[in-house]
Specification:
This protein is of the alpha+beta class and about 350 residues long. Helix content is about 20%, strand content about 50%. A hairpin with a 4-residue loop joins strand 12 and strand 13.
Length: about 350
């Protein structure tokens, strides 16, 4: 990791701590007013510099998308794309025993509205969950819970949208996974999602995916989500997912329960437990279970967010739970798009 990136993460961490940490934790600190004023001045200076970067990159992403849209789309449609966006994530994780991991994840999405809103282009280092429902941006799925049908990173490709109505979404994606530059791994994915409002508080979403790639072959995935709205900004989600890889002759089973709550207009909390099993023709074996609390904070305007997530994990050790393994995630999330 470059020194400049490390410096950015350290600054972001200090900034997020200032915003995420409740005032009650600071009541005993009795901070020096001069030091507090200096920190606030540094934060404002860093935010000003970052906002300039956001505007520059956002304008470039918009212009780049507009150029592609005019190239691929029809000149008869004079449409200005408004959903070209680059998301950048800077995760930093501390593990029990002193080990730390840091990375840079990104997702670039380019809309092509002149293709009758059918095509999108993407370049991504991960696969972000789209199952956010109707929650506001502050109350989105914890970024640590994003995951893919496949485990490889760095994908480039295109999506063709068949239908995007209120209760049904269907599309096909095709592209290359670039985990190996010398020999890219082509893939194609077809997905359908249905939404049903069972009553005023309960919503069901059913998702089916057919996935095919050159390296690992065919995979089928089924996901069922139930969202129960306790009140406007309070929701309980049950998420069941089964993934079958033909090559491995194995089914991956994931069951999650998440409680979302909006603490304030700028802050949200998600408490979740996630269990994982491996199944084949012989048996169903427990793999591991996570228990975590995620705090998500909108730090600045609607393009800078931070997450803090302590987590404990238990693994299977000869048919019994291992000793708990602790970790702490801090993640800075930045959105780059044209500010209207």
């Amino acid at each position: 990791m470059s020194n400049s990136l490390k410096a950015t993460i350290i600054k972001a961490l200090r900034l997020a701590v200032l915003f995420i940490t409740p005032a009650a934790f600071c009541a005993y600190a009795d901070p020096d007013p001069d030091m507090l004023e200096a920190d606030q001045s540094n934060v404002q200076s860093w935010l000003s510099n970052l906002e300039g970067t956001q505007l520059s990159i956002g304008d470039y992403v918009h212009s780049f998308g507009e150029g592609l849209d005019r190239f691929f789309g029809s000149d008869e449609l004079e449409i200005t794309g408004k959903r070209n966006k680059l998301k950048v994530y800077l995760p930093l994780t501390w593990y029990q025993g002193g080990r730390t991991d840091s990375d840079i994840n990104f997702k670039l999405q380019i809309d092509l509205p002149r293709t009758n809103h059918r095509w999108k282009l993407f370049l991504s280092s991960f696969s972000e969950s789209e199952e956010t429902g109707e929650l506001p941006n502050t109350l989105r799925q914890p970024a640590s819970q994003t995951r893919a049908t496949d485990e490889s990173l760095n994908q480039v490709g295109a999506r063709y949208l068949f239908e995007a109505s209120k209760n049904r979404l269907s599309y096909i994606e095709s592209g290359l996974k670039l985990s190996r530059i010398v020999k890219p791994n082509p893939f194609v994915k077809y997905r359908e999602r249905y939404k049903t409002q069972l009553d005023d508080q309960l919503e069901s979403r059913t998702q089916q995916t057919v996935y095919l790639e050159a390296d690992r072959g065919l995979a089928l995935e089924f996901e069922q989500i139930f969202d129960f709205k306790i009140e406007h900004d309070n929701l309980i989600r049950g998420d069941s997912r089964l993934t079958w890889w033909r090559q491995d002759h194995q089914v991956l089973i994931n069951q999650r329960f998440i409680h979302f709550s909006k603490v304030s207009p700028l802050r949200a909390r998600a408490i979740y437990v996630s269990g994982n099993w491996l199944a084949d023709n012989q048996s169903i074996d427990f793999d591991y279970v996570d228990l975590a609390v995620n705090w998500r904070q909108r730090i600045y305007k609607d393009w800078l967010y931070a997450e803090l997530e302590p987590k404990v994990t238990w693994y299977d050790e000869q048919n019994k739970l291992s000793q708990p393994q602790y970790s702490l995630l801090f993640q800075l999330e930045m959105h780059f798009y044209k500010v209207s």
